[in-house]
Inverse folding.
């Protein structure tokens, strides 16, 4: 398949040959030289395994080991049950929108996220907010 045929199919940019990997063809047919700095990536203080394990423990603490736990989390996040089982087994952790949905529904996941991101102070603040809302609910029931 020719380069033009590939471009017509909608490929924005593709390397032509390994020997010319710094040159790219764009949709309009212009040649551009890749420029810019390559910055070294900093190692994250939180490994993927630690993240997955922490989320797994938070989910297990909040929901237990029941078979319904997987279905509940799948409903919360919109993720498949297979994906949620991977979270529970700590094979991988949730990403992006799934983590946000989990944090909305699970105070334990929110706490783990805040701790892993280095916001220990916010954990106590979040716990105080939770205590305040629960106390206000109890006061409403007593009235």
């Amino acid at each position: 398949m020719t380069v033009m045929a590939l471009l017509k199919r909608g490929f924005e940019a593709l390397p032509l040959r390994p020997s010319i990997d710094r040159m790219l063809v764009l949709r309009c047919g212009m040649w551009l030289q890749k420029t810019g700095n390559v910055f070294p990536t900093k190692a994250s203080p939180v490994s993927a395994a630690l993240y997955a394990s922490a989320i797994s423990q938070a989910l297990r603490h909040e929901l237990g080991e029941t078979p319904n736990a997987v279905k509940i989390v799948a409903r919360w996040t919109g993720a498949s049950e297979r994906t949620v089982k991977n979270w529970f087994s700590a094979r991988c952790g949730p990403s992006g929108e799934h983590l946000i949905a989990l944090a909305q529904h699970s105070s334990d996941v929110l706490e783990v996220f805040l701790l892993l991101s280095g916001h220990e102070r916010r954990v106590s603040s979040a716990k105080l907010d939770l205590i305040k809302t629960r106390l206000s609910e109890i006061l409403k029931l007593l009235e």
